[in-house]
Amino acid sequence: MELPTAYNAKEVEDKIYQLWEKSGFFNPDKLPLRHKKPFTIIMPPPNANGSLHIGHALFVTLEDIMIRYQRMKGRKTLWLPGADHAGFETQVVFDKKLEKEGRNRFQIPKDQLYKEILEFTLANKKVMEHQLKKLGASCDWSREKFTLDENIIKVVYETFEKLKKDGLVYKGKKIVNWCTKHQTSLSDVEIKYEERNDPLYFIKYGPLELATVRLETKFGDTAVAVNPKDKRYKDYIGKEIEIETLLGKNKIKVIADEAVDPEFGTGVVKVTPAHDPVDFEIWQRHINEIPEPKQVIDKYGKLNELAGPYQGMKVKEAREKIAEAMAQKGLLDPAKTQLDYKHNVALCYKCGNIIEPMILDNQWFVKMTAKPKSGKLSLRDSAVKAVKGKKIVFIPKRLEKVFLHWMKNLRDWNISRQITWGIPIPGDPSGQVFDTWFSSGQWPFATLKSTEKGDFEKFYPTDVMETGWDILFFWVARMIMLGIYATGEAPFKYVYLHGLVRDKERQKMSKSKGNVIDPLGVVDLYGADALRMALIVGNTPGNDPVIYEEKIKGYRNFATKIWNASRFVLMNLDGYNANIKIQLSAKDKKTIKDFQKTAKEITKEMDEFRFYVASEKIYHYFWHTFCDKIIEEQKPRLYPLSPSGSSGRAKKEKAASQYLLITLLSESLKLLHPFMPFITEEIYQQLPIKNKRDCLMVETWFEK
Ligand SMILES: [Zn+2]
Asked: What angle do CA 601, 605, 610 make, to 5 degrees?
């Protein structure tokens, strides 16, 4: 047998993937009977609105390593792939596509818009599947799920019903984070904060003076508030004061609330419940004392009829005009205005527009901290209990603290969105859809309940959830809460969180910087094995991995090294018979023992999720020990100098040498397989070894 002179990754990788697919071993039900105990990973479904990027390649590699390793250890492995319709995210991508075409989603009939987005998404989904295969993903395609599959929606609706029955869902008027560009509400985690400098104005409210940035919302003021302990204003509390405004005389009540900071401005604040979440809460605490909220800004960020002459103006323009007019009327003291008052402004995480807090009717909320009627613990508390009780282990451990801290300050979750693209909320008259994280938060159990019969019983709870730490709150926290709530069990035992892929200078990759690495382009040039190694070596969980082309090239060279070494071993097997007992020298035995020690160490690293160490160890062993030392040392035994070459002793030496090389090669290939599955499988197919399996993929991992 002989391997071709040069390794052609492009040709081999496609051929080998087909071999695996044909073997059926991606499907746990088709694995040999010795694979008994399940090991399950549910793939985080990539958003089906574009091609896979380098971050996807990272998660595919990490999860494929875990799955391949456990499969070789004899586990009944299921890696369930999927694709996410990704509600708002996809809507944003699609909006941009429409914009380019000179169209606008608000002018397209709802049904047609939905159909168009569905077609767009399904086409992307197909591209993505092809790309996952290129990266070597050994997932079970027969169980692939899409977040809009009918039977997934059914499970999502069941959970929604259960939440309703348990009194954990309510509908109400609530202040939401509104993006005036995207025309939808956003959850608290979809908001980013930025420090800005804006003028802080001091304005007169009858006998009182107060400081505010948001002058334009004053038409929506329903009270002024002071701290109950603030002695300066105690005589005003509970009384109405007469005020002069731009629209004439008015009366307004003074209330006392703990939320007012006596140190801010004058210690008096205006209360505008329709346009400020803190004021909204103040109103809720004083619901009988002050009038209903008055909305003065519309969904497009413009002032409405309650603003009199300022109607139709955008916030910024109105603010400046109002400041002028008030100053003229003596209602604002320009001398006191702080021009560069520093404060945090909430922005839409997608478009960066300033969030306009707004009261919306018919909003759906899930109570996160209230007990369900049928149970003892709230969604939040049951998740915290599971994590504190080590039912779920975080890798790296430090992110457990971050998780627990965030859970402390959890507010009710607004799960309704005003976009077309998503799962409709049953019984919602205004046609809203669920927040996409409400459905993907149920992904581990929804997938297993909707695939083959018995899957849920067999594969749930799953073993590992591997994803980016940036979606710890968006997704992981919700999966833990909803998983425990709906099934009674934590959805996974380990949470492995990876970082954000960066370039050589540790910069974020972005199109504008021109430092983006297209994973599929790289696979085409250097092979998926090389990319996988480059993504794993040195990549510790929770930290940002660094990748650049030379690094990938380096592992392409490693693939060449593996190929040449294997070629050498296979070319020198003349007369070798795997069935004949070999007499090994003491040195041979020591060489094998040394390998076993290394293999044992690598196994330990694998078991403890330190793939970045395991991959480096096998790399060094193969290159610097097996190739540089062992092969070199064996050359005299393989090519004995005549005339003793034909003697019985020389033959025995040669046979021992051949045995040593083929054994160490095949065992090393096993250890390399989870990281570099294609080249190792291709060589394995040519090995003349005993008890060979159909694929290296189902070979037995090193056992001590
Ligand atoms: Zn936006």
From this structure: 150
Give the β-pairing of 492-498 and 462-468: parallel
CA of 532 to the centre of ligand 1 (A): 35
Cα–Cα distance for residue pair 496/527, rounded to 1 Å: 26
pLDDT in tens, 73-93: 999 999 999 999 988 889 889
Å from CA of 88 to ligand 1 middle: 10
Report how far residue 94's alpha carbon sits from residue 88's, in angstroms, rounded to the nearest whole number: 10
Question: Against a cut of 0.85, is the pTM above it?
Answer: yes
Rounded CA separation 545/520 (Å): 18
Which residue segment(s) compose the domain that 424 sits in?
42-166+369-498
* Ligand 1: centre distance to CA 192 (Å): 11
Ion ligand 1: residues, Cβ under 5 Å = 179, 181-182, 348, 350-351
What's the 99 CA to ligand 1 centre distance in angstroms?
15
Does 156 lie in the same domain as 49?
yes
Query: Quick one: pLDDT at residue 2?
Result: 77
So what's the pLDDT on residue 316? 94
- Residue pointed to by tokens 């909003």: 363
pLDDT digits (tens, 9 = 90+) for 387-439: 999 999 999 999 999 999 999 988 899 899 888 889 999 999 989 999 999 99
Ranking 53-57, 360-364, 541-545 by mean pLDDT, the lowest is 360-364
DSSP E strands: which ranges in 420-488? 433-434, 462-468
CATH number of domain containing 604: 1.10.730.10
- Count of domains in the chain? 3
**Residues 341 and 198 occupy one common structural domain:** yes
